[in-house]
Each structure stands twice: as structure tokens, then as C-alpha cells.
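Customer escalation, tier 2.

The customer says the design service returned an amino acid string that "doesn't look like it belongs to this structure." They asked us to rerun it and document both sides in this ticket. The original C-alpha cells are below, unchanged.
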């Protein structure tokens, strides 16, 4: 497989201005007639080379004349045609097989419905095309299908015609007036229930809102609809951005590789991010539905109106849109808790990716399989880069920059540099050094030292940055100096050199430094602080992120110490800190975050040659010790957080989170099992039910199987809840797990062809059951490889996502590293390995 390089980008030799598509939908043999209007770009005599994969070519017509098969060449990824005209019409007819398309790229079946996924390069599995984001055309799409099977026929834009045809068929024709790249094309056909609503935009236009779900699910679409309206209003208020078509459609499907897709006017969603109701969805599900609905909606401007020139620029739309959805969530909920959760994702997953074999800058320079670059780095670190810009420029200037970006580039396909230049030009800011964030991989490390000069009342602070010898970045560093003065002294430092010092005058006593307020930059820090200093930050910092983070640092210190000396006892000061957290009068959601220990994944990377089991034992020991010492307080808090009825406001959600974190401590103690069955029996919502079951899976007892069986009977016809059941089973923490996994894979409701279900077992095991994934026999690694071999042939994209924990082995002990490599070598030798897995395995073994 040959890599593609950013440096090799060339503008397209031809443009496509208009596309007229006709789909005659049949399960095994769908016929696609694709009429394209081409123009030659500049003078050249190169042939036209169209992308196409896994399609059967039926015919090619040039300006209405049918071409003989000797007049063009076809291979397994392209169609090449020599044309001497500067302006011409090409009609290409292809046949495709949606029913057998288990890769879920291009046109495929999700249950009985037809649907498409074209990002990044799926359109070429529908027809021959210039399948690249800088080729933008207006699309007209006619969909023909059986009327009974597919009463709803959808595509992008506005409906312009519809009617009945012979043999029980009908058609609908759509026109999208906004020129778009092929990756934003969508088609959906099937039998759905529709939730309808409308939205009046800030300029007074009425937009029809429609959410399509499987029959029987309409009551689970209200939260998505309300979220969509909130997102539309938020984007108007925050960025002055208004929706531009007369209709906005969302379709929920059960078979989907990703979370959702922002196709113009017709979003296709994994049903997991649309469907939610009080009994079947958790608070986290509610949060995620709103966030993903927002994310895809926000793409309409950041992604669709202004799109990417090439796929190396993916973060142009994704980093910016994740930042926008994070801000939206922060405004809808607790900003501090939202931020803490963003940071947990970075620390537990993105940092590992950035330290692993697939590390890449947020704007990658070399790609073998584009689908491998829809990463935490491009998305989450990309969002952090935009956030830093927001921090450096301030809210108002950031808005001015964004306004200029849209006025300069509306309707165009542009680069990350174009974005930064617009921000710089609009605000008169020099962002040249800042641009380095786009080309460096790895997580920078800040090494901090301080010196207090009592005589001169000066506080000296020195920060050094390092990231594999790469040039210094522009890093915004928010700090607070805490003294006995009433007000803490807050600053935003611009760290631009490899090592830089600051002197603060008039500091009458040695301050305590709270570093990286609101986590102003995606960096690691090396700044040992005493337990007393951390305790001071926890109670006295103004910045809530720092308060939380100081607690995490304190816990990290003791978990690592216990790992090295399992017999050591924890100091009273740690218990006192926890006692004061438990007794304090802080918001429940924030308190729940403070009580949550740093996870295995957050810790594992920073320890060299780590024995994962020893780390898990240490986390467990600290948790159990805290639970034992403070049992009455945990129990009191648990009981005080119980609520009589069910409500879904922020306070109720926070209380549930707090109650369930207390439960997770209490169940580490011998005599508290009854709390689990009590909570399970009395729960009136999925959050509480699932919390009880997760604890039961983490500390398996006699009860466990009874509870799980009861749950399965109750929810057997709810697909999304059964995904939770599969995930719970895969996380059972005892040595029956490998038999359990075999049973799950043989379960009548299990199928590797459904990505959500495959992930529910495989990812739940590798992520939530680290004790057995990393077990000394290597069986966990072997299990994953066996599944990847099967998935490679079914759905390479899903396989490639699931391999992550096996390629990030650098910090593990030597024995585990060699067991993993042995498994990877086996996989590498598998014939017909798709390029998705090949790229990652080769990188891991390089
Ligand atoms: N563009 C999609 C999203 O991030 C993923 N393909 O919303
Ligand atoms: Zn996105």
C-alpha cells in the first residue's frame, strides 16, 4: 500500500460543476446513473482519472455518445479516459451491491433501510468520480425504490419532485443548491417514523426539522429534537451563524461505523446518538446525544459551507467543530465538569495515541488509509489547539477571526493555514509560531521551577518546554498565585521559548502555584508539589479545573507509591482531604469528579515498564482504603444523594453521579453487596440501574448472574440497551471471563456485522476489563487478535479502531510487550489484511 503525502497535493485537473444522480435501489443490484458536467482546469492534455472501487461498470457516455470499452481503462480503483474537450458531459452507469456491503462505506443496508456513508472516500464505492473534497458540485438526486419497502426516499437539499412509477415503485428527486464535495453526499431510503418540528431562524426563516427513526422509536427522538433546536439557537447567539436550507433531516440507523455524519441537510446518525428516553438512556447518553447533535449541526458552517482542501486538513473542520460542541455543552451544563471530562479523554486516550506508533500531528503529513486518521489527535487535540487560539485571542477577537474566515472562504475548500491566517489578519496577531501546533506530534512536557525571594517580595517562575527536540511552541499557560491575600493573582503567560522566566513583584509571602487554569494547553507537567500545596489548591484556587486537578495529582502520587510498596499505609492527610471533599458543600456533579480516582488508562502511560496488574491492584488498594476509612461518610453521602422521583435537570444528574461514585467505593467493602441489589431493584432510571450492574460486574458475587439475567429479559428488544448488557458482561472481573466472551460471541443477538454490538463486546472487554485483557497468560491479547482477523474481512474500519490497545504497548513490562508483538506478527502475516490494519500493525512493529 502506497502512502499519500501532504507535500504532494496538486489542484484537480478537472472540475465537476453539476451532478445528476439516479439510484434504482435493489438489495443486491442497485443501478446508479451518474451524469456529471466537467470543465478542464487550465490548459493541459492529461487524461481524466476518476476514482472508483467495488463498483461494476455498466456504461460510459461522453456528451451523449456511448463509448466503446476500448476508449477508457478501468482497474480496481480508477477509470481513465482521454478527453480533448474543455467542457463536457459524462454519464456513467454502475451497479453496486448494498446488501453485501458489510464495510458500511458507500451505499449499504442498515436492517431494511438503505443508507450511505461517503466520508472520507466512500462515494467512489457508489460511482466513478473525482472523489476529493476540493471538487465541489451541485447535486440533483433521484431515488427510485419499492414504495412499500421504502416509503421515505431522502437525499440532500430540497425535495423538487415525487411520483409513482410502474411495478409498485415510486421516486423522489432532491436538489441541493450548495456546491459540495462528494463526501457530503447522502441517500437514505426506508420505512421510518418521523418526528417533525420547526425552527424560526434569527432572520425569520422557517426551517422544517425532521428526525427519522425506526417504527416504535418516535418517543425516543424528543431529546434529539430539543437538542437540535438548542444547537441552532446557540450557534446564532454565539457565532451569528444561521441555518441555510429550508429543511434539516436526521436519520437514526443501527448499523454505522462512526457516531454520526454531517451530510448537507441530511445527517445520518448512529442510533446511539439519537435515541434516548427516561427509562432506557443514562445521563451520559443524554449528554452525548446533545453533544453529537450539536457537533453535526455545527458542521454545517465549519465543514460544509467551508470545507477541507484535502484530507490532511481534516482538523480544519473537526478540531474547530469539536471545540464548538464542547463550548455548547459547557454552556448547557456545568462548564467545569464538561472541561474536566474533556481533559480526562485527552489524558486517558489522546496522550497515549500521541506517544504511540500512530502518533501524528493534528495535520498529518502521510496517510495510507484515511479512515485511520479520524483520531483523538485530529479531533480532541485539534479542539485543544482551537481552544488555545480562543484563549490567546480572547472571545471577541476569536469571533472577529471566525467572521473573517467565513467571509473569505464561504463556499470554498481550504487549509488549516488559511484558517490561522484569517485569525491573524482579523486580529492583527502574529500566529506564525502558533502554526507549529499543526505540524508537531507528541505531547509537550512543561518542567516548572519556582523561587520565592522574601526580601524583595518577588516570586520567580521558570517554565521549560520539551517535545522530542522539536522547536518551541507558543503555549498559553494560565496560572493563579494563591497567598493569604483575599484575591488570588491570575495571569495568562505566553510561553514561547524553550525556557522562560517570569518575575512577579509585590508578593508578600511564598505563594502556592495553581498551574494550567482551565487546562489552557494540552501538555503534561513536571512540577512536584507538596501534599499541603495540593490541598491548598483544592480548597483555595478560584479555577475549578485546578481544584479538581490538584486532587487527581495527590491521588496519582499515592497510587504510584502503593504500586511500588503495596504494604504502605496511606497518610492521614489524604484521608482528611477526602473527608473534607465529602463534607464540603460543593455542587454534586463536581464533587463526583473529585471523588473519581484517576483511571488505569490515565495512569498507565506515565509509568515505565508497568505491570498493569500491579497498577490495577494499587488503584484498588487506594480505593478500598479510602472506602474503609470513610465508610460512614460515603454511606451518608450515598443516602443523602438519593432522590424520590426522577428528574433530568442538572442538579438531579449531579446527585446521581455523586451517589453512584459513592456506591463504587462502598462496594469495595465486604458487607455492602446488598446495596447493589437494593439499588438495582429500586432504580427508576437507567443511570442507577447501570451503576448497580457495573459495580456488580466489577465485584462479581452470587447475585450477579441473577441481576444480569433479569436485565436481559427486561430489555431484550431494545438494541441500544442490549449493547449495554453485552458491554457489562464483557467487563465481568473474574476468571470465567473467557468462557463468558465465547458465550457472548455465540449469543443469538450477537453479530460482528453490527459495529455497535461488536464494540459492545470487544472494546468493552479491552477497555473496561484491563485485568483480564492484560492477564499474564496473554489470553486477552489473543482474544482481540482473533476478533480482528474476523473483522478484517467484514469491516476493516471497525477492526482498525479496535486494535488501539494492542499497539500502544510502549510503557508495558517486557514480558507483555513481547506477548503483544508475537500476536501482532501473526496478524501482520494474515493474507488479505486490509490497509486499515496493515498501516497500524506495520507502524507498531516498525
Ligand atoms: N465527520 C464526521 C464527524 O466527525 C465523522 N466522519 O462528525
Ligand atoms: Zn465532525
Amino acid at each position: 500500500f502506497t502512502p499519500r503525502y501532504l507535500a504532494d497535493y496538486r489542484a484537480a485537473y478537472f472540475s465537476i460543476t453539476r451532478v445528476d444522480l439516479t439510484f434504482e435501489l435493489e438489495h443486491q443490484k442497485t443501478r446508479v446513473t451518474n451524469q456529471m458536467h466537467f470543465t478542464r482546469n487550465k490548459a493541459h492534455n492529461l487524461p481524466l482519472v476518476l476514482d472508483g472501487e467495488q463498483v461494476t461498470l455498466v456504461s460510459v457516455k461522453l456528451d451523449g455518445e456511448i463509448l466503446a470499452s476500448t476508449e477508457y481503462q478501468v482497474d480496481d480503483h480508477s477509470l481513465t479516459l482521454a478527453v480533448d474537450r474543455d467542457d463536457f458531459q459524462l454519464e456513467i452507469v454502475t451497479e453496486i451491491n448494498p446488501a453485501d456491503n458489510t464495510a458500511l462505506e458507500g451505499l449499504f443496508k442498515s436492517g431494511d433501510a438503505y443508507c450511505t456513508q461517503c466520508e472520507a472516500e466512500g462515494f467512489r464505492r457508489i460511482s466513478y468520480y473525482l472523489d476529493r473534497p476540493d471538487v465541489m458540485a451541485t447535486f440533483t438526486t433521484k431515488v427510485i425504490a419499492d414504495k412499500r419497502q421504502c416509503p421515505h426516499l431522502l437525499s440532500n437539499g430540497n425535495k423538487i419532485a415525487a411520483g409513482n412509477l410502474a411495478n409498485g415503485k415510486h421516486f423522489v428527486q432532491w436538489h441541493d443548491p450548495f456546491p459540495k464535495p462528494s463526501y457530503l453526499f447522502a441517500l437514505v431510503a426506508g420505512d421510518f417514523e418521523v418526528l417533525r418540528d420547526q425552527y424560526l431562524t434569527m432572520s425569520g426563516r422557517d426551517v422544517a426539522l425532521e428526525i427519522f427513526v425506526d417504527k416504535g422509536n418516535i418517543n425516543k427522538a424528543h431529546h434529539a429534537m430539543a437538542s437540535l433546536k438548542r444547537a441552532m439557537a446557540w450557534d446564532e447567539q454565539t457565532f451569528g451563524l444561521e441555518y441555510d436550507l429550508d429543511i434539516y433531516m436526521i436519520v437514526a440507523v443501527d448499523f454505522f461505523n462512526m457516531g454520526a455524519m454531517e451530510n448537507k441537510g441530511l445527517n445520518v446518525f448512529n442510533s446511539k446518538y439519537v435515541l434516548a428516553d427516561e427509562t432506557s438512556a443514562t445521563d451520559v447518553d443524554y449528554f452525548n446525544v446533545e453533544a453529537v447533535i450539536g457537533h453535526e449541526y455545527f458542521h454545517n458552517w465549519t465543514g460544509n459551507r467551508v470545507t477541507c482542501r484535502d484530507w490532511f486538513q481534516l482538523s480544519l473542520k473537526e478540531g474547530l467543530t469539536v471545540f464548538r460542541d464542547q463550548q455548547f455543552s459547557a454552556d448547557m451544563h456545568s462548564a467545569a465538569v464538561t472541561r474536566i471530562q474533556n481533559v480526562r479523554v485527552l489524558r486517558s486516550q489522546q496522550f497515549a495515541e500521541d506517544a504511540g506508533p500512530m502518533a501524528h500531528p493534528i495535520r498529518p503529513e502521510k496517510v495510507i488509509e484515511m479512515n485511520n486518521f479520524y483520531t483523538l489527535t485530529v479531533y480532541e487535540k485539534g479542539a485543544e489547539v482551537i481552544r488555545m487560539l480562543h484563549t490567546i485571542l480572547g472571545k471577541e477577537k476569536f469571533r472577529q477571526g471566525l467572521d473573517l474566515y467565513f467571509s473569505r472562504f464561504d463556499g470554498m475548500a481550504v487549509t488549516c493555514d488559511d484558517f490561522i491566517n484569517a485569525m491573524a489578519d482579523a486580529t492583527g496577531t502574529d500566529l506564525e509560531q502558533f502554526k507549529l501546533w499543526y505540524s508537531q506530534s507528541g505531547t509537550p512536557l512543561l518542567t516548572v521551577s519556582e523561587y520565592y525571594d522574601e526580601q524583595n517580595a518577588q516570586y520567580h517562575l521558570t517554565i521549560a518546554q520539551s517535545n522530542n527536540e522539536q522547536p518551541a511552541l507558543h503555549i498559553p499557560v494560565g496560572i493563579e498565585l494563591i497567598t493569604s491575600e483575599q484575591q488570588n493573582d491570575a495571569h495568562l503567560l505566553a510561553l514561547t521559548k524553550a525556557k522562560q522566566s517570569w518575575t512577579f513583584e509585590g508578593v508578600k509571602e511564598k505563594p502556592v502555584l495553581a498551574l494550567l487554569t482551565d487546562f489552557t494547553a494540552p501538555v503534561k507537567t513536571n512540577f512536584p508539589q507538596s501534599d499541603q500545596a495540593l490541598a491548598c489548591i483544592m480548597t483555595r484556587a478560584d479555577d475549578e479545573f485546578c481544584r479538581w486537578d490538584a486532587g487527581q495529582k495527590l491521588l496519582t502520587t499515592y497510587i504510584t507509591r502503593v504500586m511500588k510498596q503495596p504494604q504502605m499505609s496511606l497518610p492521614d492527610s489524604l484521608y482528611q482531604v477526602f473527608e473534607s471533599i465529602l463534607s464540603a458543600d460543593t455542587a454534586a456533579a463536581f464533587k463526583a469528579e473529585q471523588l473519581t480516582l484517576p483511571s488505569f488508562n490515565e495512569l498507565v502511560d506515565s509509568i515505565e515498564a508497568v505491570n498493569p496488574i500491579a497498577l490495577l491492584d494499587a488503584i484498588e488498594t487506594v480505593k478500598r482504603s479510602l472506602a474503609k476509612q470513610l465508610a460512614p461518610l460515603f454511606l451518608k453521602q450515598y443516602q443523602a444523594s438519593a432522590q424520590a422521583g426522577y428528574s433530568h435537570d442538572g442538579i438531579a444528574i449531579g446527585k446521581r453521579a455523586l451517589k453512584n461514585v459513592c456506591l463504587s467505593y462502598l462496594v469495595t467493602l465486604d458487607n455492602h453487596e446488598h446495596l447493589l441489589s437494593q439499588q438495582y431493584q429500586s432504580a427508576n432510571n437507567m443511570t442507577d440501574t447501570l451503576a448497580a450492574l457495573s459495580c456488580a460486574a466489577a465485584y462479581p458475587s452470587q447475585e450477579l448472574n441473577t441481576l444480569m439475567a433479569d436485565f436481559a429479559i427486561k430489555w431484550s428488544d431494545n438494541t441500544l440497551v442490549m449493547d449495554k448488557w453485552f458491554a457489562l458482561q464483557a467487563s465481568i472481573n473474574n476468571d470465567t471471563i473467557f468462557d463468558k466472551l465465547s458465550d457472548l460471541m455465540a449469543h443469538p443477538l450477537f453479530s460482528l456485522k453490527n459495529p455497535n454490538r461488536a464494540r459492545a463486546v470487544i472494546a468493552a472487554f479491552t477497555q473496561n476489563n484491563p485485568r483480564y485483557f492484560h492477564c499474564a497468560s496473554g489470553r486477552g491479547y489473543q482474544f482481540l487478535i482473533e476478533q480482528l482477523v474476523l473483522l478484517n474481512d467484514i469491516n476493516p474500519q471497525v477492526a482498525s479502531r479496535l486494535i488501539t490497545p494492542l499497539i500502544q504497548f510502549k510503557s508495558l513490562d517486557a514480558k507483555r510487550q513481547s506477548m503483544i508483538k508475537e500476536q501482532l506478527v501473526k496478524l501482520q502475516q494474515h493474507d488479505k489484511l486490509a490497509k486499515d490494519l496493515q498501516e497500524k500493525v506495520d507502524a507498531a512493529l516498525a
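Tier 2 assessment: The sequence is consistent with the input. The longest strand covers residues 169-180. Residues 4-191 form a domain with the Immunoglobulin-like fold (CATH 2.60.40.1730). Sent an explanation to the customer and offered a walkthrough call.
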